[in-house]
Amino acid sequence: MNLRKIEFSLLRKPVFILIAVVVFLMRYTQVDYQSCYSDAQSLNSSLSFNDFMVDILMGKFLFALITVVILFEALRRFSTRYKLDRIRFSVKGVLGYQFRMVVLVSVTLLIYLSIVIPIQEMTSNVELRIDQDPILMAEVLASHFSFVLLLGMAFGNINMVHNLLYQPNRQLGQRSTIEAYDAIGKVEIEIEEITYIERVDRKYYAHTSEKQFEMKKNISELEKELQPYGFFKANRSVLINKQFIDSIRFWQFDKYILTLKAQEGVEINLSRSRRNELKRQNGFENGGPKGL
Fold first, then answer.
1. What's the confidence (pLDDT) of residue 129?
2. What is the pTM of this model?
3. Does residue 236 share a domain with residue 121?
């Protein structure tokens, strides 16, 4: 059976995180907030319903956001240790993958919720005074644990399916990161997040949508290494990631200007021959970016 590589870059996308937060907050739609407000007002007669709801909504949103971010970060950072970065296509392999995910999510939640829930409940106007009732506290912890466990498993498996559908040919052993350097030191950056690599004077820099990293290899070496990942040598000084191409327009004297998504203001020179070569490549044989 094939052993397939699983990446967790989807768990870093803001839209995916926001969807998880919305799903998390849905569990609070059944709460009788009017009754909770009455209980809270008995302790603080000056508390208005609007202030009460703002306090509740902000508290629940922040709790949901922090929980989701920590959960997703744990899945990303410890995926190798718990062997979640690979899956074997067999009944035993899939069941083993699910078991390892349950263990990782459970360990994360036990540590996180045992600290956060008591603090939240002691400062919340919804579940009043449960910190004084150990049985009720245990019920709240069990409820939160089971719900967030299911949430983590659901989104972990969505990430797995996304990998299998959109990266169908990636076998284990095909690398997904490349060595680079930032102000702190050596780092590993995701190859798929690199928009372009350029030579400036005698140095080489890889650009993502957010940062710039220094590379120790030259353009020729990087071209050989990254060509299987969809990189194209636009000219002697620049490698581009084809998935980020936005448009190509005619400039002058058989020269073209190429622009990239997520890199506003960046314009890359392209000769007619390189444009034609790019057009011939598989990704653009049946249409492509504007100008091809």
1. 44
2. 0.50
3. no
